[in-house]
Design a protein that fits this description.
EC number: 2.7.1.71
Catalytic activity: shikimate + ATP = 3-phosphoshikimate + ADP + H(+)
Bound molecules: adenosine-5'-triphosphate, (3R,4S,5R)-3,4,5-trihydroxycyclohex-1-ENE-1-carboxylic acid, magnesium ion
Largest sheet: 2 strands, parallel
Cofactor: Mg(2+)
Number of helices: 8
Subunit structure: Monomer.
Strand order of the largest sheet: 1-2
CATH class: Alpha Beta
CATH topology: Rossmann fold
Shape: globular
Helix content: 55-70%
Order of helices and strands: HEHHHEHEHHEH
Number of strands: 4
Number of domains: 1
Distance between the termini: 27 Å
Organism: Mycetocola manganoxydans
Length: about 160
């Protein structure tokens, strides 16, 4: 969470001249704020909606930014196994300055939870990643350009 998937993903897509899809934004557009979905229906319900959004997005020819927990779904793990997956990492110190916790229900108790969640998920993120970029200390535009350059060389 807060690594820059949405902001950097959008710029990577623009640089590669392909469409951009953010699965969180699609869910919000259809069902309203994520905090409300978590509060009213619970996390498992959110994960089901998210899985549907991810499946639809991965059928498109696009740069897709996933929600931070999308990879928890086993079907998404399977789908990503043969895709180009860019892992964005960030240090706890850098993310503390970025995250507005009120928009992220899983961080309602503060950024201390961020590290715990990251540590829990790290093996999944790293297993699925084709390549990894750290976003802690460079501007968004610069990181996006490095990723787009990598992608052009990779395909
Ligand atoms: N390299 C960067 N340098 C400084 N600020 C950044 C950088 N990347 C992202 N940010 C800022 O951090 C915040 C979170 O970025 P963004 O929403 O893109 O993260 P995310 O990975 O999509 O998070 P989530 O998992 O919650 O969807 C934004 O306010 C963004 O402007
Ligand atoms: O890391 C997570 O589990 C989440 C990250 C966000 O992108 C949203 O999908 C939601 O707040 C849950
Ligand atoms: Mg995002």
């Amino acid at each position: 969470m807060g690594a820059g998937k949405t902001k950097i993903g959008r710029r990577v897509a623009r640089s590669l001249a392909v469409p951009f899809v953010d699965t969180d934004k699609r869910i919000v557009a259809e069902y309203g704020p994520i905090t409300g979905i978590f509060a009213e229906q619970g996390e498992p319900a959110f994960r089901r909606l998210e899985r549907d959004a991810v499946q639809a997005a991965l059928a498109e020819d696009a740069v897709v930014s996933l929600g931070g927990g999308a990879v928890l779904h086993p079907d998404t793990q399977r789908d990503l196994a043969d895709r180009t997956v860019v892992l964005l990492t960030v240090t706890a110190a850098a993310v503390a300055a970025r995250i507005r916790t009120d928009k992220r229900p899983l961080l309602a108790n503060g950024t201390g939870d961020w590290q715990r969640i990251y540590d829990d998920r790290r093996p999944i993120y790293e297993r699925l990643a084709t390549v990894s970029f750290d976003t802690s200390s460079e501007p968004i535009e610069r990181i996006a350009e490095r990723i787009a350059d990598w992608a052009r060389g990779h395909s």
